[in-house]
Design a protein that fits this description.
Converts the free carboxyl group of a malonyl-thioester to its methyl ester by transfer of a methyl group from S-adenosyl-L-methionine (SAM). It allows to synthesize pimeloyl-ACP via the fatty acid synthetic pathway. The chain has ten helices and seven strands. α1 runs parallel beside α5 and α7 packs across α10.
Length: about 270
């Protein structure tokens, strides 16, 4: 079993490593993306009922699942799909849904000012170190009255895995996500008007630790920490992790909690 988990002990992973990891996972991603589909669907349900964008952007489109969903919802609109991972774009492009699939960075969008009515981003911006820049770019590319709808992850995500690893070696193996209060502060200071902003836990259950770590690897969301241990994790440490995680077992299996941020912001007229 390899050393698999989110994150890093200080600062986010290098963007090139993030892009490469998710590119490698493009073929397996959809087979294990239950959480991602559920969260993105809930974000769609939070969009303003009257919204009919003439141009929309799927920011961090991944395999294009929600690109295609947005295209089916907004049949009169023109769609753009952007991701930092070239492998994801190669996977998504043949299935369509957007007029253009663009390799790009959420912190520096390759789009003109005031060109989109909707920027939709689900479970992508947690990988952006400068979220203030992401908000600034969303503000820039949105038309007045446009919507930036996003989901992200905050403190408390994978707390069971974090605590179990601490029992084994005291090291940080799981990403220190931003606190929800930080999202509140940054959104309030962005110039965008907050329509909705809340934090909800999503709990998945697994028969064993290997099933969880296998899923994280298939998603491309494994340990990208600067200074992370190289090679395979030792058998003794894995057995220690399994034993520590068993303390959390419930009737449905081993829980893995994701603290999800939901936000719908509007650019003032």
């Amino acid at each position: 079993m390899t050393d698999l988990s989110f994150g890093q002990p200080g600062g986010l992973p290098d963007k090139r490593q993030v892009a490469a990891s998710f590119s490698r996972a493009a073929g397996s991603y959809d087979s294990v993306a239950e959480l991602q589909r559920d969260v993105g669907t809930q974000l769609l349900q939070r969009l303003p009922a009257a919204l009919q964008p003439s141009r929309w952007l799927d920011l961090g489109c991944g395999t294009g699942y929600f690109t295609r969903t947005l295209a089916s919802l907004f049949v009169q609109g023109h769609g753009l799909a952007l991701d930092i991972a070239e492998g994801m774009l190669r996977h998504a492009r043949p299935f369509g849904g957007a007029e253009h699939f663009i390799a790009g960075d959420a912190e520096r969008l390759p789009l003109r000012d005031s060109t989109c009515d909707l920027v939709f981003s689900s479970l992508a911006v947690q990988w952006c170190e400068d979220f203030e820049a992401v908000l600034g770019e969303a503000f820039r590319v949105l038309k007045p009255g446009g919507i930036f709808a996003f989901t992200s992850l905050c403190t408390g995500t994978l707390i069971e895995l974090r605590d179990s690893w601490r029992q084994v070696d005291g090291r940080v193996h799981v990403n220190r996500f931003r606190e929800f209060a930080r999202y509140e502060q940054l959104c309030a200071a962005s110039g965008l008007r907050t329509l909705k902003l809340d934090n909800q836990p999503h709990v998945l259950h697994y028969p064993d630790v290997r099933s969880l770590t296998h899923e994280l690897k298939a998603l491309g969301a494994h340990n990208l920490n600067p200074g992370r241990p190289g090679g395979l994790t030792g058998r003794a440490r894995i057995l220690g992790l399994v034993e520590a995680y068993e303390r959390f077992r419930e009737a449905s299996g081993l829980p893995a909690t994701y603290q999800v941020v939901y936000a719908v912001l509007e650019k003032p007229l």
